[in-house]
Design goal:
With about 350 residues, this protein is α/β, with parallel strands linked by helices. The chain has 10 helices and 14 strands. The structure holds 5-S-methyl-1-O-phosphono-5-thio-D-ribulose. GO terms for molecular function: S-methyl-5-thioribose-1-phosphate isomerase activity.
Length: about 350
Amino acid sequence: MSHVPVTLRWEGEVGGHLVLLDQTRLPREVVEFPCRTVEEVWDAIKRLVVRGAPAIGVAAGYAVCLSVKNGRASVHDVVEACRYLATSRPTAVNLFWALARMRRVAEAATAVDGPALAEALLAEARAIHEEDRQMCAAMGRHGADLLADLPEGAGILTHCNAGALATGGDGCGLAPVFELARRGKRPHVWVDETRPLLQGARLTAWELTQRGIDCTLICDSMAATVMRAGKVQAVMVGADRIAANGDAANKIGTYGVAVLAEAHGVPFYVTAPTSTVDLTIPSGDAIPIEERSAEEVTEGFGRRTAPVGVRVFNPAFDVTPYRLIRAIVTERGVFEPK
Ligand SMILES: CSC[C@@H](O)[C@@H](O)C(=O)COP(=O)(O)O
């Protein structure tokens, strides 16, 4: 097993800073993006310097630690930082889950002085990060057990990036693939390029190549043909928010892949930690879906590909209904969505 990217890390102790791997620059450049203020992390989340539901949650936890000034934290500053960071992106529930944890630490600590609160916040952010690592490892094991009977060289199709770059650990949707490879199997991953921001092409194909895992990149519109040719034995994706009924929001295009999988008799699996489950939301209809700028569609990566002024609809996520999901893999095991 070769190179595993370090998606994010905290540098130093209290008063330190957050270092992100700048995912907007991949795969051309591997560069870090240091963040020393809450505002810098907000901007990094918004611009997808750090992205992927669990990674956004971990980054937000550390971001709250940046509200500490001169080694002292104030409850007011923490609450303000949480409120502000919650406006960065709306869909991935891990963001709100992590911020709620940080806020609870602050609110429980009203009697504690500034330096002690600063220590407690960093400890909580580190705990969120460590738990994410553990959850990724457990999802990998459960997912690999689920796929263990697939024939050698079986095709697994994935959409967007649900690898190490999307988490604080070793991935969610791709963790079972990494674990299969660790167990000496040779899965073949079909990578949807994932319009419009190409997380599949830029990030998933890069990660798999770095690790020496067999993969083939396809345009999103080619998935049907590849499935019809019998080359896909399972679909594995992550999720940004799973509602109480098992409906799962994930990168735009995932729903289409699930419909195709159903039409071709291919099992469709969602792998996500329980921090992605939102039991306050009864069904996917109530999941807030982020809409992003028209330019991502009309002039992505600096090149105009559509007429100026054309109307654009650019939702970043869609919802796959639970009835299309064969199973949801979490760190606690494998569940039928119902
Ligand atoms: C952690 S993998 C699950 C999702 O977060 C992932 O598939 C996804 O949709 C990420 O979208 P992004 O817009 O790149 O943050």
